[in-house]
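Suppose a classmate hands you a notebook page containing two proteins, each written out with its sequence and a corresponding row of structure tokens. How would you begin to make sense of it? This section walks through that situation. The first entry is reproduced here exactly as it would appear on such a page.
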Amino acid sequence: MTLLTYQVFKTIAEAGSFQKAADRLGLTPSAISHTISSMENELGFSVLTRSKSGVSLTNYGEKLLPYVNGVLNSDESLQQMIADLNGLKQGKVKIGVFSSVCTSWLPEILHSFRRKYEKIEMEVFQGTYEDVFLWMKRGVVDLGFLSVSSAKDIPIVPLYRDPLLCVLPKGAKKESPGESIGIEEMKHHQFVTQRDSTDADIQNFLKENSLRVQSNYHVVDDLSTVALVEKGFGICLMPELVMRDIPYDVDCYLTEPRASRIIGLAVMNPEFMAPAVRTMYNHIIKNYQEEEFRN
């Protein structure tokens, strides 16, 4: 099989159709179909399931995809190393981010990086902690922003300590915002909660403090959560970085005991990064790591 075969397979997996893959790669649908047929004949099993609604991966295809991504990423690393040896800073970096990093940090990171390295292309994938973790495991992204607790077995460099806040409807607590709120007081409130994969650090705080929250409202995104709090449907826990971008009129209090998430930059293999990836990795750590985490 050739690199083109792997690229065709990966593109179909991402696009979900032969036609879209053909458009992205500048090939005809028949060429795409022929490439996959030849691949399946050589492998001895099917990698795609065709249906009226589109194309999806078979179980074999799902297992094969991370290895295909690995081959393509290795080829990209080789091309970047050759360019690097020739004195050209070029290549491509794929970055996985969760929402608050995407809105608060990423625009400045991309802008400052592009000013220095115009020839390095950047691609951004936004999702939850779980999304970023899986993208890294499958080779979809080169670098990923995660909290230290959600990185699991992926090596991660801490960058920033982000305090957790308890968010209440405006005026629901007599003390001024900026003061603290304790566990016992939180227990008397209804909660608006998010699914576990959305913010593992909040889930950890609840478990560590035996906070068995009662909630009729289970949402996914931060804006929806705080919007429900503003209208009096409950309280929630949110990282401070999230609340910088929230337009709703609510009160925020530090938790007692104090808690925080630590945001870091993760990479699957710190010892082996393509030149463009390492350049971005070093740029972020040099310019955006807080003093307390510097060696």
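The notebook's second entry, a different protein, reads as follows.
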Amino acid sequence: MAPKFVVFGGNGFLGKRICQNAVTAGYQVVSVSRSGKVPHSTELNDKQWIQEVQWTAADIFKPDSYHALLKDAANVVHSLGILLENENYKKTLSKSPTTGSKSSLFSLGAGPNPLRKSSPYFTYEMMNKQSAIILANTFKQEIIKKGKKEQAKINERSFTYISADKGFPMIPSGYINSKREAEIEIERMHEYFRPIIMRPGFMFDEHRNAIGPRSFIHSALELLYCGNKFLLQNKLQFMNDLIRPTVSTQQVSHSILTKVEDSNFKGIVTLEEILKT
């Protein structure tokens, strides 16, 4: 039987591409989200791999709702998180400026809002940090239950956390701080699985050409990055730290699979490394 690959947030903007790549690589793929809904797509290629994924609903803050899925999992991915603690930003930015229709263009890996507006969980501390730690600990406990012989097979298991390259201008420091704090806690569990920390920048999807906020932001960031590279020749370090390259969900998901399949790899994967894969 093919190894089991469990993606939390698998129906989100990045999560679905991780699922797609895992299916293509021959894994038994399970997507876990609060709704359990299958992502909508009109692309024929998407419809083919979507049928191969087990789409499941669970609450990441309630391990009893999903611990059984981790029992025989070889690889687990945490692809959840929020950019702002005020949920209204997604409502505003999820509308196309030309049609007013809703889209999921600005969800940074989490897809549709996983929690209600009034939920106490919609904070950096809970969504970006504690949800990942809870999931990693639950995976760890399932490994411990298997006994020392199975525990020793560390290289055969991985836990991937979708972190972030850097903070964004005008975004509270709590965003990147919560990511870094989660990284530290996950890396401390290296005796049970290989921690893989992905640090992508602003993400776009290569197969989505819809006009909307994410498309506009992507174009603006690319223009700034090219200007810094060719006009300023990357000579000003503060500009290099501020203006970062964008990366596609396909590049990030491909990089994840590459690191997962490298049984000797564990640790941080920088934006620059992701862009090279």
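A careful reader of the second entry would note: The beta strands are 4-8, 28-33, 54-57, 73-78, 158-162, 194-198, 203-204, 247-248, 267-269.
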